[in-house]
């Protein structure tokens, strides 16, 4: 009877080991994976080149920082672009400069350095679309181009569609004819000035043209 009890106890013990061991092993593997250098994502700067209009601001960000890493920001020309301790850039006057971002920390042997080139241009004073009227078949696409003055401006026109169900427009001015009808594409700038393009959408002459190019 004692031998039977020992066998039962041994069987239970073996089963417990089989059940618990894989879990414990997975935890060790997981813990090891977290600590390995290969699985730690490298720090990255959100932008390396940037255009700003005077009086605009932008926040530089560094992703994938470790707990002990500290970020230091420095502008080569504070009269063009100033930068705060938190990475906020402020465009002060027209020109070009570089913002250097340095990561310091006990866990790295050498400081990691990023650079972001910043161009500051004047605001736009006028905008004109190169096309005033467009006729498209359903399913067709076209890109509208806006001319802004002065040509040194860092500003871009903001595109919108009066009726997106007829014609959709992207931020870069690409339009897509979605259904038959007439609508207007507006491109505007910060001072309130704008230009309009009238878009007429007609039935596709061939079903093949309904497919996106």
What this model shows, in words?
About 15% of the residues have low confidence. The chain has one helix and 18 strands. It has two domains: 78 residues, Immunoglobulin-like, CATH 2.60.40; 77 residues, Immunoglobulin-like, CATH 2.60.40.1080. A hairpin with a 5-residue loop joins β17 and β18. The radius of gyration is 30 Å and the shape is elongated. The chain is an alpha+beta fold. The strands form six sheets. It has a four-stranded mixed sheet, with no helix packed on it. A four-stranded mixed sheet has the order 11-18-17-14, with no helix packed on it. The N and C termini lie far apart (83 Å).
Shape: elongated
State the separation between the terminal residues, measured CA to CA: 83 Å
Roughly how many Å is the radius of gyration?
Answer: 30 Å
CATH class of the largest domain: Mainly Beta
Domain tally:
2
Number of helical runs?
A: 1
Widest sheet: strand order?
2-9-8-5
Total count of strands: 18
Helical content stands at 10-25%
CATH-assigned homologous superfamily of the largest domain:
Immunoglobulins
- Main sheet properties: 4 strands, mixed
CATH architecture of the largest domain: Sandwich
Structural class: alpha+beta
Strand content: 35-45%
Low-confidence stretches: 6-36
- Per the CATH scheme, the topology name of the largest domain is Immunoglobulin-like
Give the overall average pLDDT. 83
- Give me the strand/helix succession: HEEEEEEEEEEEEEEEEEE
């Amino acid at each position: 009877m004692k031998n039977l009890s020992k066998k039962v106890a041994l069987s239970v013990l073996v089963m417990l080991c089989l059940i618990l061991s894989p879990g414990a092993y997975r935890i060790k593997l997981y813990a090891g994976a977290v600590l390995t250098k290969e699985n730690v994502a490298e720090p990255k700067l959100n932008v390396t080149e940037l255009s700003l209009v005077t009086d605009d601001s932008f926040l530089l960000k560094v992703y994938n920082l470790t707990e002990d890493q500290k970020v230091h920001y420095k502008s080569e020309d504070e009269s063009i672009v100033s930068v705060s301790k938190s990475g906020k850039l402020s465009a002060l006057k027209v020109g070009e400069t570089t913002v250097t971002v340095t990561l310091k920390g006990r866990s790295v042997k050498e400081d990691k350095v990023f650079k972001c080139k910043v161009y500051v241009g004047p605001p736009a004073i006028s905008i004109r679309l190169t096309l005033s009227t467009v006729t498209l078949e359903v399913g067709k696409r076209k890109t509208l181009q806006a001319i802004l003055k002065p040509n040194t401006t860092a500003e871009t026109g903001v595109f919108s569609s009066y009726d997106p169900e007829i014609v959709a427009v992207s931020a870069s001015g690409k339009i897509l004819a979605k259904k038959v009808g007439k609508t207007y594409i507006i491109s505007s700038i910060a001072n309130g000035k704008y230009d309009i393009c009238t878009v007429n959408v007609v039935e596709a002459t061939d079903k093949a043209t309904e497919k996106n190019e």
